[in-house]
Amino acid sequence: xxxxxxxxxxxxxxxxxxxxxxxxxxxxxxxxxxxxxxxxxxxxxxxxxxxxxxxxxxxxxxxxxxxxxxxxxxxxxxxxxxxxxxxxxxxxxxxxxxxxxxxxxxxxxxxxxxxxxxxxxxxxxxxxxxxxxxxxxxxxxxxxxxxxxxxxxxxxxxxxxxxxxxxxxxxxxxxxxxxxxxxxxxxxxxxxxxxxxxxxxxxxxxxxxxxxxxxxxxxxxxxxxxxxxxxxxxxxxxxxxxxxxxxxxxxxxxxxxxxxxxxxxxxxxxxxxxxxxxxxxxxxxxxxxxxxxxxxxxxxxxxxxxxxxxxxxxxxxxxxxxxxxxxxxxxxxxxxxxxxxxxxxxxxxxxxxxxxxxxxxxxxxxxxxxxxxxxxxxxxxxxxxxxxxxxxxxxxxxxxxxxxxxxxxxxxxxxxxxxxxxxxxxxxxxxxxxxxxxxxxxxxxxxxxxxxxxxxxxxxxxxxxxxxxxxxxxxxxxxxxxxxxxxxxxxxxxxxxxxxxxxxxxxxxxxxxxxxxxxxxxxxxxxxxxxxxxxxxxxxxxxxxxxxxxxxxxxxxxxxxxxxxxxxxxxxxxxxxxxxxxxxxxxxxxxxxxxxxxxxxxxxxxxxxxxxxxxxxxxxxxxxxxxxxxxxxxxxxxxxxxxxxxxxxxxxxxxxxxxxxxxxxxxxxxxxxxxxxxxxxxxxxxxxxxxxxxxxxxxxxxxxxxxxxxxxxxxxxxxxxxxxxxxxxxxxxxxxxxxxxxxxxxxxxxxxxxxxxxxxxxxxxxxxxxxxxxxxxxxxxxxxxxxxxxxxxxxxxxxxxxxxxxxxxxxxxxxxxxxxxxxxxxxxxxxxxxxxxxxxxxxxxxxxxxxxxxxxxxxxxxxxxxxxxxxxxxxxxxxxxxxxxxxxxxxxxxxxxxxxxxxxxxxxxxxxxxxxxxxxxxxxxxxxxxxxxxxxxxxxxxxxxxxxxxxxxxxxxxxxxxxxxxxxxxxxxxxxxxxxxxxxxxxxxxxxxxxxxxxxxxxxxxxxxxxxxxxxxxxxxxxxxxxxxxxxxxxxxxxxxxxxxxxxxxxxxxxxxxxxxxxxxxxxxxxxxxxxxxxxxxxxxxxxxxxxxxxxxxxxxx
Length: 1102
Known about the structure:
Radius of gyration: 38 Å
Strand content: 15-25%
Largest sheet: 9 strands, mixed
Number of strands: 35
Number of helices: 34
Distance between the termini: 93 Å
Structural class: alpha+beta
Strand order of the largest sheet: 18-35-34-33-19-29-32-31-30
Oligomer: single chain
Helix content: 40-55%
């Protein structure tokens, strides 16, 4: 915000006004009493001309108006992207392995680790580079757009990125503001303009902005160019709304109504002039679009834990082999071959260094046990898998013509692990579509008898407190206490020149428009704006007869303490009854002011508005005094209907083992009724209340709190807890004489014993505190928050998974969420179906990667015991390189994208299936050890199966003996076919893509082996694998061995599948028998009941 000072020495000849603007909230007291010092400010010279003709203008350095949302440039992409990627432990580890292979004489080629690492780095770089290119393209569309700058009393067209701080910019109707502007003048006589901020906060309603009072007349290029002014304003900060406003002569303190934000759109105003104060990356829009904190899923934490285990296995293998090598070589005959025999002195020289290099060589030999390609596969699975949510037609809403939206794909699997759901009420569980039900005036109810009002009488009768004038006063209060503006006929879109055009109303609150279409002309003197703390708003008006009235409307908890107590009782009965019926209530009060009282309020308001410090507190104090001792007129009841299938969705979430908490700002009775309607509370639920009802509520709450702690809890009974914001503040922020942590722990214990919790009268910060408290409990349960309004953003960001609803309160919640859905009912399928499947898929992917790499490396380790620990590799370098990249990567990727071990409809209709994978069930240590032992078993079968077959020296039909590379190739062939067929056995949902990648990968392995062996491409005949694969397949014994070893390896898995299928069939038969028995029992009962009724009727007739 800026302070506006109009200097008296204006040059009349040039019709130039000299203006200075200074900040308000960046001022602090200096050491001298009564003085204030400005800190952290910037000075903007309007039009780049100094205020005084004698002052030399020195241009300050501000950033240009370029918007840069991209991370990279053409010059820094390569080094910056590589730096970011090698910050990942796995990538850095493989880089070290690659450097060791380059520097040290290792048994394998640097290509074996360098090529997979290059593949992973390249794929990730291409993905990130493409995403950044899209951001560059979007930035250029904004930065290269044309704008008009006023220079030398003329309009000059420039690109948006060339706007400088201090430039005077002209913006026309339906154009977007190119930077943050101080509003100087407009085409409207009153100096106002209408703005929509849908791109900032999602609000599509019109907002009124006001030009600086002393520059409203400067509405031409010549006049605005003659303006000489300086602006001193605070440094850029991201808060869109928290700006104080001071309006006084000669000082002008400007607030949010004078600031036009970049990204907002001008509506229903021909043109405006504004001076650029914040440009480019210093605009509020740019500061608000900076990245959110990264959320990590439980799967990532499990992967890191498993990596540590496998890293320990790797170190153990390298240590064992290094030790045994030197134990074996302690025998002089085993030290070196005869042709390379060394003396004892030569053997002892650099022995420690050689031991270290041998250890590194073994690390290189076994490094493939760490699955480097798993990271890129997981990233691709998450990225591609997120499209299935967006493509889901059942999550498409015809009303808003939109479907589900994925803002981050890193948490897909977290959707299948949710334990706590925190939901807003209004607009989330309900439609947020208000329908007037009834009103209460002086205790008299009016319902279903109100006709449409075309207008009120233009005469002001006496303001009686009883009789007909009381009803008229009530309606006037509703009509006047609002923020509606008139849109003139010549500004209505599409009606210019239309013979039947007429003025229309626009408002930031759509429901207010219907209430004011018949309002008379009153002089609006002051508006005491609504805020969540006061929970009310007021207006001070002067009637046509000169009477001064203050009208106030707000929540009953805010109005009742400020009216005559004897007027409350009758209205309170209706308010409480309406709240119990689930209606939203609003109380209306008024106060007649004398001229003396108004003058006092007017003076205090102006003084508070001029305050440079503690301005908000001073304004609140004036509001509090002005709104005291009012007269209660009546109350309104508005129905907010439940959303379709919201009750069924909550029931499904409960059945899936999730605990649902409703966090709302509504009053307790309304929220409680809604919770019963949406089946959060059942009729059998025992409700526990911790709410503030009297001024001495602190003592009562403490007493109730400890009674709840000491009570006995029945396991078979369902409990529900209701708590309000005041009580929660006492528990979370107790007095100094109590223990905060003890209160929190006891409160949390009570909550955890309840199946459902309702928190009413909650502030946005309290919602986030509740989520944080549960999230940080023992066990770190996975939390999900869902809401539709800006007040839900804090809890959405706080939860592990944030869901935004594309509702009627703007898109701020959906923009700040991880996922966005059109309706609350779509949460059911998102969690029970998509979340369940994504978790199962990625858990299987992670376990499978560790399993297949253990199968891959264990034979390599065992082979060292038969080659004198000489670091001789078992597999060819090409096989080492291609195993994770080509031979086994695509089948598991397709599985992790398409697998449906249970039908989606079954998952949605049977919520209890969700509990089978909850608590990270598939990535616990027990399944991890199962997969590890399975990999170890199959690795032993691969190696020793082929080893025992090689005891017969004539495997070839012609009597020749197979060599070392044939031995490794047979092991590798059994390995590739086994791990691929293992995945085929695990697949329950076959598509053409599964068939293509599974059988295609095996065919590609065979093709590559022929190619690498020189059969297809004879130019490779010099390398060591020449015709090895072809010769291997000429042996019938080899074919038999491969088939037999594959069957032995997969036999335990086949046996488990058969036993599981038998058990499932028996379970289905048993359930069918139970269902048939229950149906027959019901039929027998019904027949007996009908027979008994018939007998009684016959007896009665006789």
